[in-house]
Amino acid sequence: MRKNLILSIAVVSALALSSCSKLGPLSADNFTVDPNPLETQGGKVPATINGMFPAKYMKKKAVVTVVPELRYGNGQSVQGQSATFQGEKVLGNDQTIAYKVGGRYTMKTSFDYVPEMQQSDMYLTFNARIGKKSVEVPAVKVATGVLATPQLYKQTLMNAGGCIAPDSFQRVKAQKTEANIKFLINQANLRKGELKNNTVQEFVNMLKKINADREGLNLKNVEVAAYASPEGGFKFNDKLAGKRQDVTENYVKKQLKSAALADANVDANYTAQDWDGFKQLVQASNIQDKDVILRVLEMYKDPQERENQIRNMSQGFRELADGILPELRRSRLIINYETVGRSDQQIKDQFTADPTQLSADELLYAAALENSAAKKETIYKKAAELYGNDYRAFNNLASLAFNEGNEVQAKNYINQALSKNSKAPEANANLGLIAMKNGQLKEAENYLANAIDANGFGEALGNLNIAQGNYATAVKNFGQSTSNSAALAQILNKDYAAAVATLNNVKNPDAWTNYLMAIVLNRQGNTSGAKSYLQKAIAADNAVATYAAKDLEFANLK
Questions:
Q1: Is residue 33 part of a domain?
Q2: What is the per-residue pLDDT across 71-81, written as a single tens digit (0 to 9) for each?
Q3: How many CB atoms lie within 10 A of CB 555?
Q4: What's the predicted TM-score (pTM) here?
Q5: Which residues, other chains included, contact 115 with Cβ-Cβ below 8 Å and sequence gap of 6+?
Q6: How many domains does one find in the chain?
Q7: What are the b/e assignments for 17-28, b being 16+ CB within 10 Å?
Q8: Domain span at residue 50?
Q9: Which tens digit of pLDDT belongs to each residue from 165-175?
Q10: 103-112 sheet: strands from edge to edge
């Protein structure tokens, strides 16, 4: 009996000692993870873990380090940021958990994303000790899978393609030719010497050219503006400027008639005292008392008072009389006309007949008229051959190569573009797109910093912000764009109605267009619609089928 009693006491003591030296397992019920499943953001897989140590779990001398671990692939794993907790009798700086009541905690962690993580499990592992003795706490599975939809930007950015350097071709361009006729002081007669000056001769010759080329040049109107300098009384100058207008207008009408353009509109006017022109000439001059004269113009609005104040500056006025005022006794003759370039068909025909007769802008415009990538390439190559110092053709060849997935060739053309213009914005933007396609976000950011003026910059920047996890900003970057990437940004920003509208208006829909529509519809609860679009996407591209098989967006459809 006594032996049995002693044995019982020993067993109880051993059990007590054993219980004091163990922490025991934790359950998944002790943890929540947000989000679950995990989701990529900015190339990372972030997670917020809310945990709870139950009452009477954390021994007073215990120290427990919680280590998040993502397990994926064929036995691969990666650890995230850990957090350490301690019992009441531990001297340390970590969060203390009371033995009797337990305690709650929040910790954040993240993992660098790799595609294999789509199929993964997140565990919490524990490094624990009581006093100096290590104790084992089994790992706990707390989340399954990684939703990688933000990473689809690597596929969707190909829908808009590379950045094309634009042409500046305008079929109709507004042009003007201007001439000046000067008059002697207080006179309004046209002097023969003035009518033979270069600007007047150019004026007359341009009228003849317009008449000779009615198809390529279109006369809008001719303006006549006559002026008198601002010295002398207003009444006299008003009459004088009016006479200068009349004689100049008659001269212009005579020239129009001579050029068989008599029906042209002539808009004539005069200015009695040209104070505005006076101010401009003074500002541009180095005459004595310049600042004083300009101050007078600001202080006095009455013309007579202005003149009196300026005349009081004897030396300054002499300079004005010799160098400024004669320039204001004039008439301006302005031909407003349009140059009319080749039509679309004429440009196409000219390229076939003799592309050397086309300008660089006409060639780039010709490429824009074509839908075929092969035809575009032919034209860009000819443009690069004929205009080798123009970066645009080389850049656009790079864009075509990028669209075909040939990054090596794309970089080669980009380097040629940059050799012509080291600051070429589209070339830098395309380098940024290539970097993004390869997940090199820092490099992409550096390239785009030099591409602010690039055609298509908003599209490129929007993709970068998707990659960086800035979805609302990305939506703003895309603006009114109707590309796959623009729709992806809207999906990630949870604006599903906008995403549907964008996808319905994608200019060149592809397999990923249908895939994104499947995501939207599935998130909206339209599983039948989601299945239909998913099937279309898979039928169009085998790569989509491989991706979809791992995508948690459609876990409910499997």
A1: yes
A2: 999 999 999 99
A3: 13
A4: 0.77
A5: 148, 151
A6: 2
A7: eeeeeebeebee
A8: 24-147
A9: 999 999 999 99
A10: 31-34, 44-53, 103-112
